[in-house]
Structure formats: structure tokens, C-alpha cells
Amino acid sequence: MGNTSVSGKIADAKSGMSLPGVNIQVQRSSLGTTSDLDGNYQLDDLPPGIYALTFTMMGYAPHTEKNIQIVDGVSTELNIELKTNVLASPQVVVTSSRKSQDILESPFSVSAIGPREIQAKAVTQMVDILSYESGVSTIKGQLNIRGTSGYAIGAGSRSLLLIDGIPMLGSAAGNITWANVPTSEVDRVEIVKSGGSAMYGSSAMGGVVNIITRNAPPQPETRISTQIGTYSKPRIDQWAWQDSRRYVSNFELSHSRSFADHAAWLRVQKRRDDGFMQLNWEEALNISGKVKLNFGNAHSAAVFVNVLDDKSGLLSTWKSPADPFEAPAGSENDLTDGLKTIINIHYNYVRSPELAYKVRGGAYWNSWQNHGVDPDHSNESRYFAELQSSRNWSEILTSVQGFTLQENGVEAQIFGTHGSHSLAAYLLLQQKLKLTTLSLGGRWEAYAVDGIERDQVFSPQVALNWKPNEWFAMRISTGKGFRVPTVAEMFTRARRSIFTVEPNPELVSETSISREIGLSLMTGQLGMIDLLKLDLAIFHNKFNNLIEPVPDSLGIIHFENISDARIAGMDIGLGVSLFSNLVDAKTAYTWLDPVSVGADGAVLDTLSYRYRQHWVTTLGLHYWNLDASLEYRYASRLESVELFQENPLTAQDERVPVHVWNAGLGTSYKDWRAIFRVENIFQYYYTQLERNLEQERIFMITLEKML
Amino acid sequence: MTPVRLVVMVLVIFSLVWNCSDPGGLEAVSGVQGSIQFNPTWPDSIKSAVVVIFNKDLNLDSLNAPGYSVTDHYVTFGDPIDPGTENADYFIQLKPGDYQGMVIGLIVEPSQLLTNDEMFQNIQDYIVVPGTAIPRGIRILEKQVNEQTGWYVRF
Fold first, then answer.
1. A453 alpha carbon, distance to own chain's centre
2. Considering its fold, how many domains does chain B have in total?
């Protein structure tokens, strides 16, 4: 019996133009390919049988062609037309189940952001986009999915950041360096909002953000982008501090091309931000690139490299509430400079339609020096390796299993010299039972610090997805999560403002049990409605031995396994496109009840740095080749903080809700694209972290030319 | 949709936004600020110095009188000043009203006082009042910062 192939051409349903770069995936298999420059594709080595093929491309609705009969020795031709999808959000995700999956079939809450949404905002840091997603908020760059992380002086994120599936948290503080993400080269971002420890281990207990970088398209492409922005002067006379304006400039040059079956892109970014405050200036040079090698349908490999050389002001607090833009006396010249290097390697081998292997390897080196009042330095390294296989045991049963190994090292004045390593094994089984998919999985992980084994954790999860038709699905899940303490939490010795932080090497892992029930709806062409998307989730996360910074009776702060906590809540996201793509709107509301609880379950206090309510809305108008957008973000007043409590007698350290409006206007003409954007239109002033003012109004113009 | 309808829609949206745009963020503050000169020689027992604000009813002569509670008159204090400092700027946010301000020395770490309520209630046991620190009357007006300079402190 011989193998045979399926091939054809893919075109835009409206214009008939061929579509290069369409992803073609054989359902319930690891086989796939992409269309070439002329929209042609070919899948070889398919054993005879009946298949379903899914065609996906950003900006187009996914198309699935079922019941394709492949007969021995006969080549099958299948031409496809794709229809545009106005909301342009990805509908096939890879993060929640570690394999390609329709977003409606995901066992957990997942949202995805596509490149059109990223480009429309013309932001240079991905964190600025994530804040407008349901269930997500950020405080000084610390990612909070459903309020899990709060703010822990940058240490110990409970949400895991991945780039192309490889962890990207710092090896000492477990923090995220957003400048390492090449925003303009991102294909999509997937946010898993349920606890993900069963698949991704420590730090994923509050969710996972997977940033998937793009592969170079078949046609050569050179992009030049320049952005100029200026901050407004404070609208409050008392806060005036500088006569001259402060500017932002960003220059990017990228080139991508294919060679034979392979493709690559290279990007150089130079950024200078004067900052709207005296000490939040930043300058950075970022060079990143990705090479994708394809050896037929069976073998492929990719290498991603990112080098970031940056220098920035070292901001701790404002000078005073009467001078919130100025640095405290004596620290005006505090700065930090560093060099961060990432190398990620992927190798995929599709042995048969039923069996595929993935090997991932990553290295991350980070060195920084602080200059000023508290000089310090750090040299950090992290090495990661993973072997994963996925197998389709039958039409209805699939499994994903793998091993990971991670090693961290740090040498710094603030932390000392330490090393840690972890070893993990995971398994996820998915069985389809008519309309229901049952997911059953778990991960065992052991970790050691300075050569001493500290803990072994097993995190199981179970989930059900019920999808009665193509436009509606319900899901229910529960799982256990965990997070090992970071080196920063165990060994920091520092002084911050009047507070002293001392080490606590006795810290143990914190654990969580998360439960969620949710529904998703996605439909199109209902009268004047072109597309309607709705996602609703109700969740309840219980945490044990939560690691939080706690002052003792001497006022000295230790990180301690001090409290149990409970974060219950709901988030709802709605997206709609109306009047033949003239208007689109997205709104997302999150409600949280984040409390610490005693041994008897009684509520003790509200967890610090968590918003009880968070609401974001984006409205877009598209007419001719003009795109206008308006965004609004509301967050309720933070009920609790750690360092400086509000003083009702003096109004000192007053906290207010967040009300921020942004607007943008973009146009494109031939190979040119221009975007004008204003953030914080009404110069609304607020703090998130105490004594740190949030962003002043900024006007930005982005001009882009594609060659 | 015609261009006229589109323009009307945009104008309606922006007028709605404009009307919703004053939800009350942080504004100009009122308070007292200035600089303090210290005698360069600090006693070893002093862990830090602070500017403390009391209400206008504090009677310094009654400080050691039985039953007289300093904390009843306490309003707030400024950022701690490290021992050995010769010159320090300070700012203290206050609501409009009349207050008294003075510089005191703390014989315990300031973070200890902040986090220990019992110690804080007996604050007079942990402070040193320098002889040169005469309480100053301070009047705070709405959204204005009162300048108090020329303080000289010797512990």
C-alpha cells in the first residue's frame, strides 16, 4: 500500500487573489504545511483514509474541509476559498492543550490576540496590549491574570510568560522583562486564564501568556517603522517641573525572506524614551531574529535569538505628592544598565499522522548593574530543555506527554550566589465522546535549591468541554497549581524606602486549587451583525501558603508562607462587528473577590494590589482606508496595598480608581501606513504602586513603509 | 451607512466620552515643605529624625503630665531622616487647617513604630525632643504648599 498526497490552491473568497502563508493542518494529526507564494499547498505521505483539513490565516475565518477521502495511489486536488474575518482574532490556539485546537474546544478559558490588533495599537511593549484583555491587568509590568499575582516588588510572578512555548521568567526574581518581546514580530498572543500548572508547572498557577512569534512569509519583505511621541506637560500647575518637552522615539528595521523551503526574519529596534517623569527614562537596542527550517512535511526546526542592551532610570518613588514627576533628592542620577540574551531552539519531527515529537531548548542570560544610591549588580542564567510527544491513539483519544529540565543560576549582591534546578514530567489525555471532550492531565515536578531538594509536587487537572454545535461551547475544569519560591523571595537582602527586606530561605511552595465553569459563543451573519463573540467564566481559586512580603514587629520585611487566600470572580468578554465591518467593539469586565482567609475559612483581609472590578472597552470604526479606535479602561480603587496606607487625616497616599481613555486614527496607502495615537487623553492621574504616578498623556505618530 | 451618519456617530461617541471624562483623579495637594539643618554630630541613640505634625491643641508643656496623650494630637510625620544627615528636605501632605510642626528624634527604627501599634500608642517613650525644636504653627490652605525653612536641629 503506497502513500499519496492532497494539494490545491487557496484564494480570497471575495477578490479571488491567491493567499500565501495559509496554515493547513490535518485534524487529529500532527501533519501540516503552509501555502506558498502563489497560494499553492501540498501534503505528502498521507496514508489512505478519511481526513479533515483546517485552513487558518490571520484576518480570515478558519475553514475546515471534512470527509476528504484519500485513496491509495491517487492524488487529491482540493481548492479552498477563505472569507475575511473582521475581528481577526485567532480561532485556533496551541497553548491550553499543547496542540492545535479550535478555541471553542479548549478545556480552559483562553483568549487570543492577533497581529492586526497588535499593529493597530502600534505599541512597543506587549504589556500595553494585555491590559485591555478580559481578566488581565498589570501593575508596573507585573502580570495579573484574574488577580493572582498582585504586586510583589517585581518578584514571584504567578502568571507564566512563554515565548513560542519556552518560559521567559527571570531566573532570580521570576519577573518578566517585556522589552525582550519583539512586539512587531508577534504572530499572536494566547492567554490561558485558568491555572496552568498541570501543563506548564511552577508560576503557571495563575495562568499562562504564550507569545508566538511569526514565521517569515514566502515573499521577501522589508519594513521600516519610525515612531515619534511627546508627553504632555502636567495639567496641574503645582506639578510643573520642566520647561522642555519629553519625547519618545522608536525606530525599527526588519527584513524577512524565504530561501528554498526555509524562511527567516531579522529585526533591529532602537528606542529612546525620555519618560514622563525624571527617572522613568529608557534607551534600548534590541536585535532579534528567527530562522525556520523546513525539511519536507516531517522535519522542521526553528531558532529564535533576542539580544537586548538597555539602560534606564531607576525609579523607586516620587519626590513628593506635590512634585510627583521628580525623583527624590539624591537619587536623580540613579540608573540601571543591562544585557539580556535569549536563544530558543525548536525541532519538530512528525513521524506519522499519529505520532509527532517536539524538542525545545532555551537559554537566557541576564546581567545588570545598578548605579546610584544603592549600587548593585547581577548575573543570571537559565537553561531549559523539553522533549514532548503527541500521539493520536484513535479517532477519539489523543495524548500529549513530555519531560522538562530547567536550571537557574544567579550571582548578585542583593540575592547572593545561588542555583536551582527542576525536573518535571507531564501527561494530558483528551478523549472525545460525541459532543464532549474530556481532558485529564497532570504534572509531577521536583525542584532543588543550592543542590538541596526542596519539594516534589504533583498537579492534576480534569476538564470537560461540551460543544453541541459550531458556535457554542461550555466548559468546566478543576486543577491544582503550585509555584516554587524564587531566589529573590528566599534570599533578598535590601532596603526599600524605610523598609528593610531580609532573606527567608525556609520558604516552601505555594499551592492552589482552581475551579472554573464557562461558556463561549461565536457566530456570524445575524442581520446587521457580522460577527458576535461572547465568553463568560466564573472561577474560584484557593491558595495555600501564599508567599507575600510581610513586615515583622521590628518592621523588617520577609517573604513568608503567611496566608491562605481565595480569589473568586467572573469575567465576561463580548466582541461584535456590525454594518459590514464598519463598526467593531470589544468589551470585557472582570469582577474579583480577592481575600486572605484564616484556617477556619473566615475572611481576614482583602489581598493587596488586586482590583475588584476591571472593565475595558474598545470601539473601532473602519471607513474607506481609515481606522479609528477609542479605548476606555476602568479599574476600581485598590482596596489594599503593602507599603504606604492611605491616611484619612491628611489625604496622604490617596488611592483613586483608574479611568483612562485612549484614541487612535490609522490609515494605509499602498505600502505606507500611518497611525496617530493619544494615550490618557484627559490626563487622568492615578497611582497603582504607591507613590508612583502612572502614565502622563502622550501623543504618538507611527509611520511605516513596507518594501 | 452614509458618511454623514458616520460623522454623526463619531461626534455622538466623542461627546459622550467628553462628558464622562472628569471622574476625579489625583489633584494638586496641600501641605508643608522646607529644609532642615542638623548639627553634624548625632548621638548614637538616635536612629532617625522626623518632622511630626500635631493638631493645634498640643500643649508641649504637658508632654510629661500624667494621663496626657501625645497621640491624641498626633496627625502624621514625614519621611525619616537618616542619622548623620546635615541637610534634609521634607514634604508632608496635610488637609487645610491649623497645625503644629516639630522635629523629633526616634530611638527605634521608624519602620518598627509604623508596624507596631502598641509602640505607636506610647510614642512619647521612643522620642527625643531636641532643645532647639520649638513647635511651629502652620496654616495650610487649599491646594497650597506652606514653605517652612530655616529649621536648625541639634540633638
1. 31
2. 1
pLDDT confidence band for A525 (50 / 70 / 90): confident
A372-389 pLDDT per residue, tens: 877 889 999 999 999 999
Whether the predicted pLDDT of A499 surpasses 70: no
CB atoms < 10 A from the CB of A398, how many? 23
Report the C-alpha gap between A595 and A76 in whole angstroms. Answer: 59
The alpha-carbon gap from B62 to the nearest alpha carbon of chain A, in Å, equals 23
How are beta strands B31-38 and B151-153 bridged, if at all?
parallel
A487–chain B nearest CA distance, Å: 25
- The verdict on A685 touching B (C-beta cutoff 8 Å) is yes
Residue A546 has pLDDT above 80, yes or no: yes
As a whole number, mean pLDDT of residues A405-413 equals: 92
Nearest to B28 among A238, A621, A657 (CB): A238
Region B69-76: mean pLDDT is 83
3-state secondary structure of B8: helix
Copy the grid coordinates of residue A246. 519629553
Whether the per-residue pLDDT at A154 is higher than 60: the answer is yes
CA-based end-to-end distance of chain A: 48
Q: Where are the beta strands (DSSP E) in A296-396?
A: 299-313, 335-352, 355-371, 376-392
A554 to B109: CB separation less than 8 angstroms, yes or no: yes
The grid coordinates of residue A86 equal 473582521
Top CATH class of A92-706 equals mainly beta
Asked if B145 lies within 8 A of A238 by C-beta distance, the reply is yes
> Residue B139 domain-assigned?
yes
Question: Which residues of chain A neighbour B80 with C-beta distances below 8 Å?
Answer: 498
| Domain hosting residue B118, numbered range | 29-153
Residue at grid coordinates 492534576: A460
Residue B71 is assigned to a structural domain of this protein: yes
CB contact under 8 A, B113 and A551: no
User: The domain spanning residue B74 has which CATH number?
Assistant: 2.60.40.10
> Pick from A321, A650, A659: which is nearest to B76 by CB?
A650
Residue pLDDT, tens place only, A25-45 = 887 777 788 888 788 888 887
Do the domain assignments include residue B20?
no
What does the domain layout of chain A look like in residue ranges?
Answer: 4-82, 92-706
> Given this model, what pLDDT does residue A306 score?
96
Chosen for mutation from B115, B144, B148 (greatest number of chain A CBs closer than 10 Å) is B115
| Torsion from C-alpha of A461, A467, A471, A475, nearest 10 degrees | -30
Query: Mind listing the pLDDT tens digit for each residue in A206-259?
Result: 899 999 998 888 789 999 999 999 999 999 999 999 989 999 999 999 999 988
* pLDDT, tens digit (0-9, with 9 covering 90-100), for A83-142: 776 555 667 788 888 888 888 888 889 988 888 788 878 787 888 889 888 889 888 888
Alpha carbons A672 and A703: distance in angstroms, whole number = 7
The fold adopted by the segment(s) A4-82 is Immunoglobulin-like (2.60.40)
Is B145:B31 a contact under the CB 8 Å cutoff?
yes
Alpha-carbon distance of A413 to A377, in angstroms, equals 6
| Contact residues on chain A for B145, CB-CB shorter than 8 A | 238, 322
Q: Dump strand ranges (E) for A140-261.
A: 142-145, 160-163, 166-167, 186-192, 208-213, 221-231, 247-259
**What's the CA gap between A163 and A304, in Å, rounded?**
9
pLDDT of residue B15: 66
Give pLDDT tens digits for A664-682. Answer: 999 988 889 999 999 999 9
**ipTM, 2 decimals?**
0.83
Element (H, E) at A365: strand A355-371
Distance CA A677, CA A663 (A): 6
Q: How confident is the model at residue A56 (pLDDT cuts 50, 70, 90)?
A: confident
Q: How far apart are CA B60 and CA B3, in angstroms?
A: 74
Q: Report the residue of chain A nearest B2, measured CA to CA.
A: A623
**Does residue B15 form part of some domain?**
no
